[in-house]
Amino acid sequence: MARIKKLVNNHRGHFWRYWEPQEGDEKPWIALDLGKERTIKRVHLVEVYEDIRGYELQYKNSDGTWTTFHEGNRVENLSIDLKEAFTAQEVRLLITKTSGDLPKVSLFDLFES
Fold it and tell me: Are 21 and 95 in contact (CB under 8 A)?
């Protein structure tokens, strides 16, 4: 079994710290720039109040376009082991639908093998 290495952790040890979009942003997103290309094998996200009702996880291609590698309805406490790893420098969570309240993301981790 391959060993998984955590790449990024934006959790600061306090449950009240989180990212949220600006009011009125209809397609908010949060992206991680890894500084160089990495091979991603797993993604872990934690949402504070479960307001996300639709999302896409995407990586940026070398031509600047975004490719969706996973989509769903709820984030809550999401951990995805990818069937096929991908290589990218930037990965983002694009929120396509909410409950009407601003979504709040407290953890966005990427792992490589």
Answer: yes
Q: Strand (E) positions, 48-76?
A: 52-60, 66-72
Amino acid identity, residue 86?
F
Task: Give yes or no for residue 2 having a pLDDT over 90.
Answer: no
- Are the C-beta atoms of 42 and 79 separated by less than 8 Å? yes
Query: What are the tokens at 42?
Result: 């797993």
What is the Cα 102 distance to its own chain's centre?
16
Block residue for tokens 């792992």: 111
Cα pseudo-dihedral 5, 72, 19, 58, rounded to 10: 60
- Which pLDDT tens digit goes with each residue over 14-65? 555 788 898 888 899 999 999 999 999 999 999 999 999 999 999 999 999 9
Domains and CATH numbers, the chain: 5-112 (2.60.120.260)
Q: CB–CB of 23/79 below 8 Å?
A: no
